[in-house]
Specification:
heterodimer, A: mainly alpha, Helix Hairpins, 3 helices, elongated, B: mainly alpha, two-stranded antiparallel sheet, two-stranded parallel ribbon, globular
Amino acid sequence: MSLAALDITPNYYLVVGALMFTIGAVGLLLRRNVLVMFMCVELMLNAANLTFVTYSRALNDIGGQVIVFFTLVVAAAEVAVGLAIIVAIFRRRRGATADDVRLLKG
Amino acid sequence: MNARDLLDLVWIVPALPALGAAILLLFGRRLGEPKAGWLATGLMALAFGWSVVMLLALRNVEPRTHTVDLFTWFPTGGLQVKMGFLADPLSITFILFVTGVGTLIHIYSLGYMHGDENFGRFFAFMNLFCASMLVLVLGSSFLVTFLGWEGVGLCSYLLVSFWFQRNSAAVAGKKAFVTTRVGDFGFMVAMFLIFAELGSLNYSAMNAGASKLAAGTATAIALLLFLGAVGKSAQFPLHVWLPDAMEGPTPVSALIHAATMVTAGVFLVARAHPFFEASGGSALTVVSIIGAATALLAATVALIQVDIKRVLAYSTISQLGFMFLALGVGAYAAAIFLVVAHAFYKAALFLGAGSVIHATDDNQDMRTMGGLRKYLPFTALGFIIAWLAIAGVPPFAGFWAKDDVLSRAYFAGDYGVWIVGTAAALLTAFYMTRAVWLVFYGNERFEAVEAPDEAEEHGFSLESPTVPAYVPPKPPRLTHEPHESPVTMTFPIVALAVLAAVGGVLSLPFRSVEFLTQWLEPVFADAPKIDVTSFVAGSTLEGISVVFGLIGLYIAYRIYRQGIPSAEGDPLPERLGVAGRLFQHAYYFDEAIANLVRGPVYRFADWLNRGFDLGIIDGAVNGVATLVRDSGNRLRRVQTGLVRNYALGVVLGAVALLVFLAIRAG
């Protein structure tokens, strides 16, 4: 069976996107290192991007790709703010475990 | 200018003292001592002069009544209340003696209030007091009268507690205000009823419509009006405020007792007599019984008082009882005659008492006086003439007035009332003679020393100034010999004494010279007349009245001829025994009110405080707070501070949302 014979339908991309999203979400919930959690968020964002692009292609609608640009901008802004916070936490605590930062406990 | 045009200007009479009050309230302090007083006195004298002009003008109009509407006070649909004044023989009689006696009391105050730091304020209130009384008697409707009625109540409060630094004065002022308010309630309800029945509060509507009312309605209105009169005129059982009102400066007492305030009740009943007549006699019977009872009970209490002003206070209550007795038997003109005569002699007595107090370093205890006539010749002269007048000795004014009242009670067929009245007259002669002998005759029971006694204590006491059961007399050590008062004080005393001596000519009981009775005739034309049936009967009654008066006078003279051996040596309380104790406590009225009214009210208030206020009101407020706090305490556990928990929440929320959407779509 040749590679060309393999018909790559949009479903493959969607499955990859869903997998990436799930990995990201589970990672976010289970890992304690703030940096890793941060990367998980990026993973989820990109999973969403992939899904958008997939549908854009499948439905022949440019709107999905446009939204990806918005997502990238938001992600960039998020990185700027988020990394700044992480650096600030590192400076104060010599570590970046999320569970240690619980000043807002009621 | 014809007489009716002149009568249109009757509003000037109350306006003058009202103007004085306004000026003095604004600038009284700046005007300072002599000027403020002279301004107030001058305006009162002008008001008196204008009242005389009004009298002359009214004599030239027929019929003898004139109403002037100044402006619409408040227009409210069906009720158009006009600020209107009514000039008729009754109101003109009242404004004459209110302004006349008021002027003399103002002059007296110039001397009495000398050196008081609130001199200007005092005269402002005095003027306002007179202005209110003038509005009261001149009003052309119940509502205008009520305006003056409340003004008089306010001014009595302000003046009785004029020396408000003294706790007893502040308490007495409140007591006067609250007690008369009980009566005012009756007056107000009566006005509601009148408006509901007649559709108008004007006296003209009353004169036209009262006789057409059902007897029951008329009785209700009359009795409610009488409740107002009972409060204002200190009749049993609302008399308790008047003896305590002695806490005010003495000129205020004179003004309250003689010219303003207490005669307002008599005026109201006389003015509203159509309702009383329309009640078919039952309301009038109540009036005469209350009046007779008050006359007798107050006279017995006066027997044993040791404070010179308290004797006079109970005497006033008793005399007012005589006036209501007269109103109750339908002898309206006689009641007004007694009001006028009483104004003369009671003002003279009060001003005389003030002069005595002034002369003896603020001593009011008669047990430590005696023999003062040597030191205070003019005061003694005025006081003694007024004493003869009130004791009913002919030919002084009190004799004619009291005899007019009593003989008409007899001829009206109310023999019970007549007997009670005569007994009260005997007691009156007794207690006034006792007062005169204790103060002006007999041995001197005071001593003049160089060094003043320790300063009077001005501490605060929480006790209400009820009738003291027994006050041990303190030997007064005067800083100087008793001295006669300045001429501003003695002149009004002597002038009033002269009026008390000759005031009887206003209405002698002989047909052609009953001036006052004939003058008041048009006002009371609709009431049945009480005629002296025969000259012999009338003379006999007069003889009986004189004999009873002289008996009372003689008994007191026998007991007090030599004075009393010492300040403690008054023989009367022991001789009266149990009755004496009853009199000393004024029939335990204050105590009874304290225990029966104040006790339960306090307990009720306490219960309300603990049960309702703390339990329900505060409970609701605190309950809400507790609810919020407790639910907050439970909810705070959700806030863990762990970012991953929040993230889990977000994920679960997203899943839930997806499931929901899937179900809805599917």
